[in-house]
Specification:
Layout lengths: L2 H9 L3 H10 L10 E6 L2 E7 L4 E6 L7 H13 L3 E6 H29 L1
Length: 118
């Protein structure tokens, strides 16, 4: 995917992406640096945290009909060494605290695993 297209997506982000970005930009969430609309292979990931090798995908209603595509996309992104976590847009709208609680646990669990492996 082209950087030019990724820039266009950044300028025209969805409401859910806007909400998520306001919560994570400038290291507001666990002091982690997130980037948005990042080209990785033939895809553009919604949000990427390189430090944690984490991709956050925000899915609207159209994704309910594209499960096979999303599964393939996740598999390809995982082959690049990332963990892919998906949230429905509605999750952000209805209970954003639960979304970030889940992310906090996910990041904490992975950090704990890394310490055990050292």
């Amino acid at each position: 995917m082209s950087v030019k297209f990724a820039r266009k997506l950044r300028k025209n982000q969805s409401r859910a992406e806007d909400i998520f970005w306001r919560e994570v930009r400038n290291r507001l969430f666990l002091n982690l640096k997130f980037r948005r609309q990042v080209p990785i292979g033939k895809y553009i990931a919604d949000f990427v945290c390189e430090q944690e090798k984490l991709i956050i995908e925000l899915d609207g209603d159209q994704h309910a009909e594209n499960e096979a595509y999303d599964e393939e996309r996740t598999r390809v992104l995982e082959n690049y060494g990332y963990r892919v976590v998906r949230f429905w847009n509605g999750d952000l709208y209805e209970d954003i605290d639960s979304v970030f609680e889940e992310l906090t646990h996910l990041v904490g669990d992975v950090r704990a695993e890394r310490k055990c492996d050292e």
